[in-house]
Amino acid sequence: MAGEAQCLSYAGCNFLRQRLVLSTLSGRPLKIRKIRAKEEDPGLRDFEASFIRLIDKVTNGSRIEINQTGTTLYYQPGLLCGGSLEHDCSPSRSIGYYLESLLCLAPFMKHPLKIVLKGVTNDQVDPSVDVLKATALPLLKKFGIDGENLEIKINRRGMPPKGGGEILFACPVRKVLQPIQFTDPGKIKRIRGTAYSVRVSPQMANRMVESARSILNKFLPDIYIYTDHMKGVNSG
What we know:
By secondary structure, the chain is of the alpha/beta class. Helix content is 29%, strand content 26%. It folds into three domains: 1-79; 82-177, RNA 3'-terminal phosphate cyclase domain (UDP-n-acetylglucosamine1-carboxyvinyl-transferase, Chain); 191-235, Macrophage Migration Inhibitory Factor, CATH 3.30.429. It contains six helices and twelve strands. α2 packs parallel to α3 (46-58) and α4 (95-105) runs parallel beside α5 (129-142).
């Protein structure tokens, strides 16, 4: 009875990742009912099932139960173990969908996490790997998570619908985070960006840079946009 009382209970498919991540960090079991129960295609989607498999890989001793229709999920978290892993992400969502949650879990692993994620690196739905590399890593460093072992490296780019991309995410272990006060956003002093292209002429990326600079130079002089053109096996 005590275990049932501590089990968190939710309904619906909203905030599935956040609920699983917070359940893993707090160690409290979780039960989610009525996952798209009234839709024509009820239950978990393929990208959500892939995310659950990823959570199972980075933990040890997790207990996951899903009913036949996929509308009810029970999750009892195990220990965050980390280590060297590899995961094939569903091409329905980009790698950023999975990487966002790993950024929250990685510092609290038993061993430093080094994982290769394969799938779509850039799409119009989720934050791209480039965005997370430029924004999430500096934020983690403010919390005291830094060093040579913290990196996001794009080995291959993959576009929808088939993907084919590959990235490496590595993060050291930090049991205690430094508290920060980050309330003043400040002013924009410089702009950095990346223009990527795959399986097209390299001139396409250069034209994107010229078009972006023609607009942004009206506001700021300090602008640098990198070009990243991949071809052959590196283009997914």
